[in-house]
Amino acid sequence: MTTTVDTPLLAVRGLRVDFAGPAGPVPAVRGVDLTLRRGETLGIVGESGSGKSVTALSVLGLLPRTASLSGSVRLDGRELVGLPGRELAAIRGRRIAMVFQDPLSAFTPVYRIGDQIAEAVRIHQRVDKAAARRRAAELLDLVGIPAPGRALDSFPHEFSGGMRQRAMIAMAVANEPDILLADEPTTALDVTIQAQVLDVLRTAQRETGAALVLVSHDLGVIAGTADRVAVMYAGRVVETAGVDELFAAPHHPYSLGLIGALPRLDGRGGPLVPIPGTPAPMAELPPGCPFAARCPLVEERCTAAEPALEGAAGHLSACVRSAELAERRPAPAEVYPVPELPPVAGPGDRSSRTPVLSVSGLGKTFPLLKGTVFKRKVGEVYAVDGVDLDLREGETLGLVGESGSGKSTTLFELLRLGAPEAGRIELLGRDTAALTRAEAHRLRALVQIVFQDPMASLDPRMPVGDIVAEPLLAQRAPREEIARRVPELLRQVGLDPEHAVRYPHQFSGGQRQRVSIARALAVRPKLLVLDEPVSALDVSIQAGVLNLLQSLKAELGLSYLFVSHDLSVIRHLADRVSVMYLGRTVEQGEVSAVFDRPRHPYTRALLSAVPLPDPAAERARDRILLAGDPPPPTERRTGCVFRTRCPRYAGLTSPADRTRCEQERPALSDDAPGTDHQAACHHPEPTTGAGHRR
């Protein structure tokens, strides 16, 4: 079939996908239209369940047998829907390639990385094994994997998460496809590894000339990568436009709400603007606009019929009031109700506040064992090797760092309420090494934790009323007090006390996390440890939980130790921040000082990798891409542990300066006498500017 220059590379029209359900077909995608041109990057965003991934999988015919597909998917004018499996297999990997969300599941674990990439080459190209292996090494080198010749013989489990994702991209571009479909390629990756993966995707796109469809829930990633954006809700595209136009002036209330719910690295706290409610189940969609039940601009005609996707100049919106939004260009807070939060006390003089947590020189090692029946110690894992923390009453201390930096181990050492292996822990004025068993039991009520995954931390066989009451029973509280406190706690976290008889699976993700918070508050703690409490939530739900945490902190006088890989959340919520790398504290201080004037090269790299949901600002920022991954924690390194990835060390010309970094361990030192901004670096950055921005 001949095509004209105006024919889009990929044209999706009226795409519909239904899955078999107990009561009949359940829609997942409802009439999606998409257009992709050569070399273009199309971003697809939306909440969980909006149909983003199903749309991407439909293009390649990778849906399960329980799905029925209708509509049209044309590649260079050739219809793919209904194509025989043999002809579709010839297109997969050759014309259209997929980068999956979880590379560990996408790779076969019993075959070497090189063999799997070489197989992808040989399926579509007539080359021998040696040539395919050489091509695989070239591809690994292209995506930035060190020593590609040796990496070919590694198994998937021997690669880190970021390296596996890069290897998956190498496999996807092996045959120089016309289209790359990337389904949440940076989910669950550290922000520095995310920046590396996105840079690899840009490199692959530039080298092959491929168009890119990037599915992501992260609007910052979309802002810095996409040319056009399609926003999906309830299985439909509700708005599509160029990336600059959509972020500057969204024409749909849902797009506006997604932007307003985001905490920003360049923000200054205050309440976020959450989207009220949750999406309706796809099997129970109401008549009219599916967003009407959550929309602050709803009117009678919204429930009469579902709006069509209409507009001009490439900016289309499925909203009856899109013309009004286009003319007004309101801020999210002008459309959505902004919750009123209690006033939070300013930083003030910390010396007058009661210490809640004081940690100095904390260390923890684990034995490295070998053998199956008879295990023997062959080394040690230095999980924590010098952590210092200082948290005062009424403060929020953010703990950040890449995976493997020792954040979780630090939390476990704090919550164990025992003598640490090395260093000293003082909790609420008590040295944990000197606590008796009875004293530790009493102190435990004053320190509670909220875990990352509420579904895993809540007993599915217990109603939420019993779950919230459990800590009170453990502290032998009277039954009368328990009966009074449970409804009070549920109401305090924004839940209906009448729902105490429901089970966790009957609540949404955000509601389950509120149950976890209510449970933690049951025994009136002084310190709440929050371990990635919003990382598994959609941005609209995350905003409500963050607002709740701010409100509870002000009302109850709580102190928070907040662990997160999302530095935008830390910037929004925390008063102080402590940055960890390979088990050590490398920088700490007030969040505004550390984020605006980072002194340690690692902190600068972390901040530069955080995407901003502002296309113009995102394109104008400097990037500091760290080489490789953190070294393994099985070796106790002398000197600065960051030097193997440090751009400042790489630029040193003086042998004396390099030797100092290699042999002398840097101690935390103040920015200036009398200040509270400390960094563990022999050559800290000057604090004259914003550091991570131009």
Write up this protein.
The radius of gyration is 27 Å and the shape is globular. It has 694 residues and is an alpha/beta fold. 33% of the residues lie in helices and 22% in strands. It folds into three domains: 10-231, Rossmann fold (3-Layer(aba) Sandwich); 249-335, no CATH class; 350-446 and 525-679, Rossmann fold, CATH 3.40.50. The strands form four sheets. An eight-stranded mixed β-sheet has the order 6-7-8-3-9-10-12-11, with helices on both faces. Strands 18-19-20-15-21-22-24-23 form an eight-stranded mixed β-sheet, with helices on both faces. Strands 2-1-4-5 form a four-stranded antiparallel β-sheet. It has 26 helices and 24 strands.
Given as residue ranges, the uncertain stretches (5+ residues, pLDDT < 50) are 1-5, 688-694
Radius of gyration: 27 Å
What fraction of residues sit in β-strands?
Answer: 15-25%
Side by side, the strands of the main sheet go 6-7-8-3-9-10-12-11
Instruction: State the helical fraction.
Output: 25-40%
Index terms:
694 residues; alpha/beta; Rossmann fold; 3 domains; eight-stranded mixed beta sheet; 26 helices; 24 strands; 22% strand; globular; disordered N terminus; disordered C terminus
Helix and strand arrangement:
Elements: E1 10-21, E2 24-36, E3 41-45, H1 52-59, E4 67-75, E5 78-79, H2 85-91, E6 96-99, H3 103-106, H4 113-124, H5 129-142, H6 148-151, H7 161-172, E7 179-183, H8 191-208, E8 211-215, H9 219-225, E9 228-233, E10 236-242, H10 243-248, H11 253-260, E11 310-312, E12 315-317, H12 322-328, H13 332-335, E13 355-370, E14 376-392, E15 396-400, H14 407-415, E16 422-427, E17 430-431, H15 437-444, E18 447-450, H16 454-457, H17 464-474, H18 479-492, H19 509-521, E19 527-531, H20 539-556, E20 559-563, H21 567-573, E21 576-581, E22 584-590, H22 591-596, H23 601-609, H24 615-619, H25 647-650, H26 655-663, E23 669-670, E24 678-679
Parallel strand pairs: 3-8, 3-9, 6-7, 7-8, 15-20, 15-21, 18-19, 19-20
Antiparallel strand pairs: 1-2, 1-4, 4-5, 9-10, 10-12, 11-12, 13-14, 13-16, 16-17, 21-22, 22-24, 23-24
Helix pairs in contact: 4-5, 4-7, 5-7, 7-8, 17-18, 17-19, 18-19, 19-20
